[in-house]
Amino acid sequence: MKKIYLILLVSLLTKAGAAQYSLTFCEDVNNDGKPQKASNSFMVDKQGSALKLLLKTDEKLNTDQMDFKIYYINDSGKEEEISKLPQKVEPSWDYVWKELVFFDPGNYRVKVYNSKGLYLTSANLKVNQE
Fold first, then answer.
1. How much is the pTM?
2. 3-state class of 7 per DSSP?
3. Run of H or E including 47
4. What is the pLDDT of residues 69-78, one digit of tens each?
5. Cβ–Cβ contacts within 10 Å for residue 104, how many?
6. Which of 5, 9, 72, 108 could share a disulfide with 125, CB 3.0–4.6 Å?
């Protein structure tokens, strides 16, 4: 019985020290930081279509900058970095969003890092063309 309590205690302490991050693709973000029309698959036209990347945390961002790295996933499944977009933030914020315009169909992965280069989260996106 003591082992179960010890395992639960260690598990809770481990989770308490690390914030949880989520990355959502959406058409817009409202004033409360909620995504509007969220999806991992979007249609774009040949002139390009804007999407927003919404990064949320259950605590505070605790950094002054986020780096969004955009990768194209080629036919063999390999990531090819196509862009790195820095975003200034306030450490007390619990969400931040960045607008991107996609022109080309394909599969993409977005990875997010803080100002110290620490990986926070990632998400995949499928872009189709009209």
1. 0.81
2. helix
3. none
4. 999 999 999 9
5. 12
6. 108
